[in-house]
Design brief:
This protein is mainly beta. The protein has a single domain, classed as Outer membrane protein transport protein (OMPP1/FadL/TodX) (Porin, Beta Barrel). The chain is built from three helices and 23 strands. Strand 14 and strand 15 form a beta hairpin. The protein is elongated. 48% of the residues are buried.
Length: 427
């Protein structure tokens, strides 16, 4: 959106940042690829190479130079995660997700002038959330868990030549993890009172860290573009606030004070390779490849005074992905898109933890766009993630609490439904 003067533009960005910070921004699945841009309708295919709207900043800052004038993208993305946990014969348990529909908002604003383009994005970067409730048999392993993130990321792109564009963005990243577990009150060494029902323990905290991206786009021909983007790893240390209710009096005295418990987490680096081909004035074909360094996330640790334990005992492995998509215009007012993508399994052969149920994923997407006039465009995109069975093998737990049982089984029939309602404004 073009606003007169620097102060209104800055005020608009700060205002939406406050809205996003006040909103739930948990994603579903290990990586939240959807940012509300038009590439979402193509399952993210070619997003490192295309300049469809201001949300391109989230994928490749170099793509900003492909926009014209001043552009703003505003998006709201409601989503829902469905799953069914089926315990093994050794640990019979069943669970479904009690979380309802959540909404992820996003804002991007970009200005292009000659060979330079600059902008800012406020968007969710990574997310996972689940709530199996406090009645299932695995409640002492996990009841609710989530990681929410927010990026506030200015970026700049420079057209070095008529073919080559370079871009960089630097992000202030907020991480907001939490976990809630049931706690056994029936350990005999606690003494009286005896026969108490389970209590609850909740850990929550926030951390700010610096991230960023480097990217380039290269025009191979007048109709084809190649894009490459690298997202840097982000190191977080989150100090937890510990809250509890209905704990045995003896156990309550043993809880660590606030900030004594913390986790060390590194969000993985990522490489994106994209290719876009303008087959004719109406049709664009796109391809994408990706790599993500999930093995470093698998090294996350929970730390207490004199104690350290991995969050994922079997670790994780790096993943790769591929996507293909198409976008077609119908006259001057309408356009439609569709695409499919695949991401490999970050879990190792040893299985994964109950609070990180990941497996290989297929993403199927479609979108529709309507231009109201030369300035306004409205979009709707639907993305459905179909995840394979996630094998849970959790024989130990990072929290040193009594009465936590081993848990084995499978997360089956996992689906993520995400809808983007977005508006693009260009001057």
């Amino acid at each position: 959106m073009r606003l007169q003067g620097k102060l209104p533009r800055r005020t608009a960005s700060i205002g939406l940042a406050a809205i996003v910070l006040a909103s739930p921004c948990w994603g579903a699945g290990p990586w939240l690829a959807e940012t509300g841009g038009a590439d979402m309708g193509m399952a993210g295919a070619g997003r490192a190479a295309m300049s469809l709207d201001a949300a391109s900043l989230a994928s490749n800052p170099a793509a900003l130079a492909g926009l014209s004038g001043t552009t703003m993208t505003v998006a709201a993305m409601p989503f829902r995660l469905d799953y069914k946990f089926l315990g093994s014969d050794d640990t019979p348990a069943t669970a479904t997700n009690h979380e309802g529909v959540s909404v992820v908002p996003a804002l991007f604003a970009v200005h292009q002038a000659d060979r330079l383009a600059y902008g800012i994005g406020v968007y969710s970067y990574f997310g996972l959330a689940l709530d199996s409730g406090n009645q299932w048999a695995g409640r002492r392993v996990i009841e609710q868990a989530g990681i929410a993130t927010l990026n506030i990321a200015p970026g700049v792109a420079w057209a070095a030549t008529d073919q080559l564009t370079l871009g960089v963005s630097v992000a202030a990243q907020l991480m907001d993890p939490m976990a809630r577990v049931a706690v056994a009150n029936d350990a005999t060494f606690y003494g009286p009172p005896v026969g108490l029902p389970d209590g609850q323990l909740e850990l929550s905290g926030q951390s700010w860290a610096v991230g960023g991206q480097l990217g380039l786009t290269y025009a191979l021909t007048a109709r084809s573009t190649l894009g490459l983007a690298w997202t840097a790893p982000v190191d977080h240390t989150v100090a937890f606030d510990v809250s509890a209710q209905d704990l045995h009096p003896v156990l309550a005295t043993l809880l660590p004070p606030d900030d004594a418990a913390n986790i060390d987490i590194t969000l993985p680096q990522q490489l994106l390779l994209g290719f876009a081909y303008q087959a004719n004035d109406e049709t664009t074909l796109a391809l994408g490849l990706s790599w993500q360094d999930w093995s470093v996330f698998g090294e996350s640790k929970l730390k207490l005074p004199g104690y350290s334990s991995p969050l994922l005992a079997s670790g994780l492995q790096d993943t790769w992905g591929a996507a293909i998509g198409v976008r077609r215009a119908f006259g001057n007012d309408w356009a439609a898109s569709t695409g499919v993508s695949y991401e490999s399994n970050p879990a190792t052969a040893g299985g994964t933890a109950a609070y990180f149920p990941v497996a290989e994923q297929w993403r199927i997407a479609a979108g529709a766009e309507h231009s109201l006039n030369e300035a306004w465009r409205l979009r709707a995109e639907l993305s459905v993630v179909l995840q394979g069975n996630a094998d849970i093998v959790q024989l130990t737990h990072p929290l040193p609490l009594p009465g936590i049982p081993p848990l084995t089984g499978t997360y089956a029939d996992t689906r993520v439904y995400m809808l983007a309602i977005a508006a693009d404004f260009t001057l």
